Automatic annotation (TrEMBL):
E.C. number: 5.4.2.6
Organism: Hungatella effluvii
Pfam families referenced in this protein's UniProt entry, alphabetically: Hydrolase
Protein name: Beta-phosphoglucomutase
Gene Ontology BP, a term: carbohydrate metabolic process
Amino acid sequence: KYMGIIFDLDGVLCITDRYHYQAWKRIADTLKIEFNEAKNHRLRGVSRMESLDIILENYDKPLSVEEKIALAEEKNRYYREFLETMSESDIEDAVFATLDELRVRRYLLAIGSSSKNAGFILEKTGLIKYFDAISDGNGLNKSKPDPEVFLRAADDLRLAPEKCLVVEDAAAGIMAALAGGFDSAGIGDGTAVPGVTYRLERFEELLEV
Ligand code: B16
Ligand code: MG
């Protein structure tokens, strides 16, 4: 049915949200803003600057664009320190095994991630070799739930959206897939989104859709 599969990165192929959390927490602590795991949940699949806006929701001092950019860059420096420590051992065996089998079955595989660090994470973890196309936060005009990141991935694979399946963990990502005319496979939070095509309890169930 499908010829291509487009994977979200954070929350699907790897778990970097605890690094995002710790990096944002340092920023929030400096500004003396309340930031907890529940709020961190809202940052899933959302771009860096939009994440900052969510963190600054209850901040009473107005910040200039330059100050916001400086905060986002500072957060990214902390985040990259965590990413530096990543290796193949941060990826579940089931993820490698499933990607191997999907390649044997001749699917085209792409990344559709909001992250500007996607290339770096893929290199560090040894995942990069599986992908025919990488569509990430670099050069992206509109982030999820806009379908742009997935449409660009499908385009790079030279496939129509109907021929691709999007695998996502975040509500914003499932909505982006729907908006772009893609079928979707939800993992984790992604399973609870209305309109999701398949609900996966485990990553390897992807081999059964
Ligand atoms: P960066 P995904 C997303 O990755 C994360 O889920 C989200 O929490 C993060 O804010 C976003 O990437 C931007 O990341 O700061 O590295 O550009 O789930 O779309 O793979
Ligand atoms: Mg995600």
